[in-house]
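Quiz preparation item.
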């Protein structure tokens, strides 16, 4: 439950939702009070599936810019708003479309797989999109006679190579928040909680993934914690996810893994990693973007059309029976 101070704003948001026939989609990293007004909270895969299926006229996307763009690509006739248009992503920034096109031109046999954390212009240059929830499956389905170029997350790419055994050329991008987790600080917290299971997001470094009991997307992390008989979990991802874990797993304890920075300044009480982009959204900004129907996602027709193909391919492969 969110604190009572958020109740008046939440009431305004519910009224606007009705008036606009809007749906509120929120990523697992959003602040608790945003998660609590959302119709759906989930990972990038679940959010794209929701955006493709909704009957709403307006999609209020509480996440970062590339996620709202994906919703617009899947529902081009709907209004898509996001609370803060500056909510970006270090992975998206690392991979400008012109630089990707230049690399693609060096090998006509490249088949490009993009992690969903990239711009619409980059998606428009790719063959298929993946999320952390389906990357292994989609790489396994890639044509065997082509050279895979995987962009823009080198850590997620390295993890997928380990899972599939498929060699890939990796773009040198990373999530600035997840690379803050380090082996030494994780070992220290593991010593403190020896019974705890370590649950790691694949955007993390290999030295951290090597200590994991489970490596998976944010949604799968929640399922893992729900179904595991363990009572304590060290969570190696953005701290916003703890809200759902506490709500959905009563009686279990969640420990935010400390970051490298927190270990350098041990007097600092903050041990969690926060994504500064995800945290740009506030409940006030959710209300305001609904009132103003802005900031609104608009994309050129050519990008909308071309970027839809690799996302649809992803959704189609994800929906195939196992
Ligand atoms: P998932 O929730 O899809 O695992 O992605 C995590 C992330 O970093 C989103 O930016
Ligand atoms: Fe991008 Fe990392 Fe923030 Fe996710 S957590 S939005 S990957 S910077």
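Solution:
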């Amino acid at each position: 439950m969110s604190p009572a101070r958020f109740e008046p704003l939440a009431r305004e948001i519910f009224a606007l939702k009705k008036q606009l026939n809007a749906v509120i989609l929120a990523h697992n990293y959003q602040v608790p009070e945003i998660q609590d007004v959302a119709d759906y909270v989930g990972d990038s895969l679940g959010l794209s599936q929701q955006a493709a299926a909704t009957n709403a006229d307006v999609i209020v996307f509480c996440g970062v810019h590339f996620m709202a763009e994906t919703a617009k690509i899947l529902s081009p006739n709907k209004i898509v708003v996001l609370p803060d248009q500056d909510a970006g992503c270090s992975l998206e920034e690392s991979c400008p479309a012109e630089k990707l096109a230049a690399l693609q031109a060096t090998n006509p046999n490249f088949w490009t797989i993009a992690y969903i954390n990239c711009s619409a212009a980059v998606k428009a240059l790719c063959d298929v999109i993946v999320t952390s929830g389906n990357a292994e499956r989609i790489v396994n389905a890639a044509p065997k006679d082509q050279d895979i170029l995987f962009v823009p997350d080198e850590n997620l790419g390295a993890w997928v190579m380990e899972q599939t055994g498929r060699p890939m050329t990796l773009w040198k991008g990373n999530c600035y928040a997840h690379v803050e987790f380090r082996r030494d600080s994780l070992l220290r917290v593991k010593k403190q909680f020896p019974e705890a299971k370590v649950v790691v997001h694949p955007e993390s470094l290999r030295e951290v993934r090597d200590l994991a009991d489970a490596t998976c997307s944010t949604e799968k992390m929640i399922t893992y914690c729900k179904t595991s008989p363990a009572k304590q979990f060290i969570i190696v991802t953005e701290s916003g996810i703890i809200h759902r874990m506490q709500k959905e797993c009563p009686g279990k304890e969640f420990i935010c893994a400390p970051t490298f920075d927190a270990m350098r300044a041990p007097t600092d009480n903050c041990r969690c990693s926060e994504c500064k982009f995800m945290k740009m959204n506030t409940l006030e900004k959710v209300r305001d973007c609904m009132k103003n129907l802005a900031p609104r996602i608009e994309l050129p027709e050519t990008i909308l059309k071309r970027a839809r193909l690799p996302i649809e391919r992803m959704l189609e492969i994800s929906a195939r029976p196992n």
